[in-house]
Amino acid sequence: MSKKDSENVCFWLPNQTAGKMDVLTPHKMIVVFLIQEYLRLKKTVTDGQAHAEQPHQIEVSAGDRKRFCMLLLKLIQYPDLPYKELYGLLLSPEYGVHPVHLEEFKKLMKLLKTVGIDVMFDLYNEIDKLIMDNTASFQIGIVGLYLRKVFVTMDRMSFHEMKDLYLATIAYYDKGMHAIRLEPGSDANYTDSDSFRQPPPNQYTPIEPSDHGSHSAKWSVKQSELFIAQQSALLKENEAKALPPKELQTRLNEIIHDRPHCSQAYFLSYMNNVRVREFFGAVHALQRVFDRTPSAGAPPPATSAGASEGKDYQYSSLNLAILHAEFGHPRLARACLRECVMLAQENGDPTCLQLAHAWLSHLEGHCMPLPDKTTSGSLFHATSLHILSHLRQGSIAGRHPSELFGLLMVNDLLNCQRSMMDLVATGIAERTALWTVYGKHEQASLCAQLLLNVELKSLDKTYNGNGICQVLCALVVRLAHLGEFGHALVVLQHAKQRFPRYPQSRDWHLTDHYVSVLRALYRGRFAEANAECQHLHSYDPHLALLQFAHVALGRQDFGTAETFLVQLLADEALAPLVRIRALLLSANVHIHNGQAKAFNQLNAAQMYAQKHHLQYEEALVNLHLAYLLLTHLHAPKQAFAALKAGLETILANGPLYDRARALFLFARTLVEMERHGATDGEEGGEEAAATAAQLQQLTTMLPTFEEAVEMFEKLECYSKAKDVYVYLARTYHELGAVEKRNRYSYRYRLLEEQYPTERQYLNVFL
Known about the structure:
The protein is mainly alpha-helical. Among the domains are: 3-195, no CATH class; 662-761, no CATH class. The protein is built from 35 helices and 2 strands. A two-stranded antiparallel ribbon has the order 1-2. A hairpin with a 2-residue loop joins β1 (457-458) and β2. α26 runs parallel beside α28 (576-592), α29 (597-611) runs antiparallel to α30 and α32 (656-680) packs antiparallel against α33. The relative contact order is 0.04. Pfam families: ANAPC5. Belongs to the APC5 family. This is Anaphase-promoting complex subunit 5. InterPro entries: Apc5, Apc5_dom, TPR-like_helical_dom_sf.
């Protein structure tokens, strides 16, 4: 065996410390016995085929071989099992072995007790012979590697250690057989397919505590490394398929018990603690990474092993610094970052060095720009993250949309060329967010559906990270805006099941509370909306204050609404979208108070929207301006001009509520324009003709009014539907159309009986 091969199997070479040696356990010996009997059976079958005249020839089907190979893979890769569960696997439908193989194995186990320790020495010679006879297949196979590891370990064992292993194996076998005999039905209980159920693929059967002294290790080096690598990848890419936090911590505690110097186990424990926001345990796990002492008398590690350990230390230092920075401990964070920078320089890791310098700059309060160009493949990830961060800052600072989308195209090309699936998903999620900011809600919905339907696979691993959660939440909000609350709830439940843990859970929690506030406002349930706003405040204080003001305005509590809005607008760090919405609500407060200051608020909101290229928000400002001109200044022509500027944008991209308001206001404006024109040109006998023209115009716009009512009722916003009926009944009354007045009065009465609304809540534009 070459030195390079030996490094890969974690064995006796000088570059391995004593702490990394595998311990031969009774479970591993049982697996060797199974392999030995299978190879004997295989040889018997081969010899029988060579001498076809022999009667009672044994046949081993392809299914038998496949089941045994899958059984070996499970027994080798998974931690040690009690003998009772191992025996159950031998009889199970999925992993059951050939009857002759099982019978020979049972005979060997009984022989183990009667013959004595000689069986162990015979096994040592048998393994040597098996390796020599199957050199070709054992060079690269998992079984050959496993047997070579057992052979080398047994070769280094003293007679006393061999005796202890033999006694432990006998005790392991006796304990398992005793448990099997205590169960009714004995072997039949295992062969029943209904009673023997395999755990899910990502679940592990709990291991009973062993009582075999020094041979009680459950996890070998390779088993623990495989388990840690699998769970780390799942936590990063698809947390829903990883083990639950409690069970994962139990497995990690077992690994740490068997391999106390395994730094990867401590780091995975840190990730698991952060997953459930157990930050005290996370800090403790990171500190345990540094609390390792090499075994006494062990040779120093070779260069490759030393570099690996150094990388473990440097990323642990970086994460410990991040935790201290988040907890407000800058002095401790700087100390950890200095150590991280030193280790990253020693190991030549530019990615870790860039991350450490970025956090150091953050603590010092100044910005450290990333290099404009880089040829290092390890820095492409950091460059892509820098571009995404620049996009977010640019949208807040008012950069031109074409510039931001051009930069996003470059970023998408960079990510796709290198198959960085996490950044591809994050880039599409960022595109969805940008379209939402600029009011193109249909484009945002298309981007979200694109990400949810695309196959994000790299090396047979499907990405399921933060970008997916963000577009799911965007889709929930879009469905709620369209009045599809049932579908929104289905998508929200899917997001909860797919991302059950922090930090992704924060996104769907915020979305859940926001949609609940929105629906309660539509229904006029202001007490319920207030309660949801209080929950929302924990996740987004600015959005919660905006909704508090919305609720107060809906209740016509204008003093409380103004208090919330003044507090909100005084914040310099307020996002442009929230600031414009706050200015619109403030204008509504001034409108209902009869103050001319509403025009100033609307003008300020319009200028701010134009400055930040927020086309949809500008259309909303025009909508409110048209409402003010129509209802308070009685200038329908000027109102129509203002409404026309933003009507197309709202009808093409707006939520259902905004579209219904726009249609209602558009129809009212045309009717009022006809009435205003008739009043201006009214002379003697032309009064009847003017009334007829107004009735004709109102009849023409009835489908638009009805469409607005349907939209409001779909949103369960019955108070707004009543506003439409009140306007139609009043207008027909003024025009002398008694029959139609009574019709809409009756429809109002029916709706009021089903969904009563207090009178002061009516005719609030918001």
